[in-house]
């Protein structure tokens, strides 16, 4: 940022469950994309179930997780988003530094969680009837009209995911190259460097126990796995 003071402090920003969620989601989405390209439908489906378990986990963590992982913390009204975007080009570090997602980034994150959730859920009802004759685990329980709508959503929504992920990665690189803010480091190792006078904002974050996050994630994985197994009979 333009008017950073020379003295910086290292602060903790993202808890372990949020970081685990982020990189597991990246791996699962890339695996699903690759398996689809290689026509490996079983791996594609497993990657999709993993995305579903991760999204369910993140929805729960958005209510019971660390204070800055909660939706109530980072989903704000349109005025604050517009105000933030106005200040983005020349704002001071004090105006642009948030101990969590900034107002624009928060909505971007919510849209991405929604899009990957829609992708995973629609996949449960989708079919591949050209080479592999593969039905999603819930196809047998719905009408063929509903299943074909879900198929269409599954094939169309992926383009929105490409767009959102492209914008998201562009934003991360923009902050790095133009604003000299390394947000990527924070989503990898959890800590960030900020001007010393702003460190107090980060001291107010209330971190939830990481083991609670891991336990919730395991339960989500078991619920998805059990549900798919039951549905397949
Ligand atoms: C399939 C690709 C990706 C998806 C679906 C994705 C999705 C997400 C989501 C949902 C969050 C919010 C985390 C949370 O609050 O739980 C997030 C945060 C973040 N992601 Fe990604 N991500 C992807 C790839 C990447 C890549 C490749 C980078 C690095 C260049 C990156 C950098 C970041 C950063 C820096 C944040 C934190 C933003 C902030 O400080 O507000 N992401 N991402």
Q: What tags apply to this protein structure?
A:
two-stranded antiparallel ribbon, binds protoporphyrin IX containing FE, disordered N terminus, mainly alpha, 10 helices, two-stranded antiparallel sheet, 233 residues, 4 strands
Which hetero ligands occur in this complex? protoporphyrin IX containing FE
What would the average pLDDT be, to the nearest integer?
95
Please give the radius of gyration in angstroms.
20 Å
When the domains are counted, the total is 1
Instruction: Give the N-terminus to C-terminus distance in angstroms.
Output: 56 Å
Structural class: mainly alpha
Share in β-strands:
5-15%
Low-confidence stretches: 1-5
Q: Order of strands across the widest beta sheet?
A: 1-4
User: SSE order in H/E notation?
Assistant: EHHHHHHEEHHEHH
Describe this structure in words.
It is a single chain. Helices cover 67% and strands 6% of the residues. With 233 residues, the protein is mainly α. It has one domain (17-162, 210-232). A two-stranded antiparallel sheet has the order 1-4. A hairpin with a 5-residue loop joins strand 2 (127-128) and strand 3 (134-135). Helix 1 (16-37) packs antiparallel against helix 2 (41-64). The longest helix is centred in the C-terminal third of the chain and has 34 residues, at 144-177. The radius of gyration is 20 Å and the shape is elongated. 23% of the residues are buried. The structure holds protoporphyrin IX containing FE. Residues 18, 21-22, 25-26, 29, 58, 69, 101, 105, 109, 112-113, 116, 165, 168-169, 172, 183-184, 186-187 line the site of protoporphyrin IX containing FE.
């Amino acid at each position: 940022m333009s008017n950073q003071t020379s003295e910086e402090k290292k602060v903790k920003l993202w808890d372990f469950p949020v970081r685990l969620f982020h990189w597991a989601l990246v791996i699962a989405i890339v695996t699903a994309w690759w398996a689809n390209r290689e026509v490996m439908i079983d791996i594609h489906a497993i990657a999709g179930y993993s995305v579903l378990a991760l999204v369910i986990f993140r929805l729960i963590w958005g209510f019971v997780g660390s204070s800055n992982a909660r939706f109530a913390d980072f989903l704000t009204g349109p005025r604050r988003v517009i105000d933030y975007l106005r200040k983005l080009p020349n704002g001071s570090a004090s105006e642009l530094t948030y101990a969590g997602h900034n107002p624009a980034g928060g909505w971007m994150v919510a849209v991405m969680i929604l899009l990957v959730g829609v992708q995973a859920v629609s996949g449960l009802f989708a079919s591949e009837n050209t080479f592999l004759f593969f039905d999603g685990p819930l196809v047998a329980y719905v009408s063929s009209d509903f299943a074909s709508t879900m198929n269409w959503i599954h094939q169309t929504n992926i383009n929105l995911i490409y767009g959102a992920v492209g914008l998201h990665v562009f934003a991360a690189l923009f902050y790095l190259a133009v604003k000299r803010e390394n947000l990527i480091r924070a989503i990898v190792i959890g800590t960030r460097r900020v001007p010393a006078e702003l460190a107090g904002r980060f001291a107010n974050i209330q971190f939830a126990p990481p083991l609670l996050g891991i336990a919730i994630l395991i339960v989500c994985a078991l619920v998805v796995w059990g549900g798919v197994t039951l549905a397949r009979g």
